[in-house]
Amino acid sequence: MSDCNTCVVRNRSICSALNGTEIAALSAITRMRTLAAGESLAWEGQEALLLANVVAGVLKLSSPTPDGREQIVGVVYPSDFIGRPFGGATPFDVVALTEARVCMFARSDFDRLAQSHPALEKKLLERTLDELDRTRRWMLLLGRKSAPQKLASFLLEMSERLFQADCDADNAAPQDHFELPFSRQQIADILGLTIETVSRQFSRLTAGRAIRIPSRRAITILNRAALELQAG
Asked: Which residue of 14, 16, 18, 79 has the fewest C-beta atoms within 10 A of its own C-beta?
């Protein structure tokens, strides 16, 4: 069981559309789960019997390619919603990139609650449209941008999403300093580049003093305007 009234992402998640009585009804069908980094929450092709709100951590959505490689097709942050209400199969594998905590709901219970609370259905629609907009921007990045533009756009996107994910936390990091939840190889796979190209672009951004890399996954944006210019 979960106390939705004390949830750190309540005001940014689908739950923000609910009043006190509705929150109590949602809390009654909720259970918390903690995932270790690398642990799976759902598998591609299985019936979507469970839905979840991300409370903490970062998860990836991925799909295997015909040659056996993994293609990361999306990233899920705190306050994001996972799953397919009202039926259907899970379209991607869902795996924790970092330790993560999620609020989980049985789909049948959540569907009944959503059907009787229009505000919740409206919030789900808004989230779906936001995700569609992000997907369209990502298609532009992958299909039309050069390697330097891809990496700069990727870093800007990560800085904004990770900052938004932490903005309610007591220890929220500055927007221009963050830890990437990805390895260099995963970044290359996401952007459709080779790991060598990604490493070269990181070196160029560092040499141009647009960013600093204090450690393997830590990024500090030194010149946001230069990074935005590079992103096109």
From this structure: 16
Give Cα 192 to chain centroid, integer Å.
Answer: 19
Amino acid, res. 53: N
Backbone angles phi, psi at 76, to 5 degrees: -120, 130
pLDDT tens for each residue of 6-57:
778 877 888 877 788 878 888 888 899 999 999 999 888 888 888 899 998 8
Contact between 61 and 76 under an 8 Å Cβ cutoff? The reply is yes
Task: Kindly state the helix (H) or strand (E) to which residue 135 belongs, with its residue range.
Answer: helix 118-144
Would you give the DSSP letter of residue 7?
A: -
Domains and CATH numbers, the chain: 4-138 (2.60.120.10), 145-231 (1.10.10.10)
d(CA 231, CA 219): 16
Amino acid at 225: A
- Provide DSSP, 164-216: HHHTTSTTPPPTTEEE-SS-HHHHHHHHT--HHHHHHHHHHHHHTTSEE-SSS
- Residue 17 corresponds to which amino acid? A
- The answer to whether the predicted template modeling score (pTM) of the entire model surpasses 0.85 is no
Q: Using an 8 Å Cβ cutoff, are 102 and 83 in contact?
A: no
SS3 for 40?
A: strand
Enumerate residues 6+ apart whose C-beta is below 8 A from 64: 44, 70, 71, 93
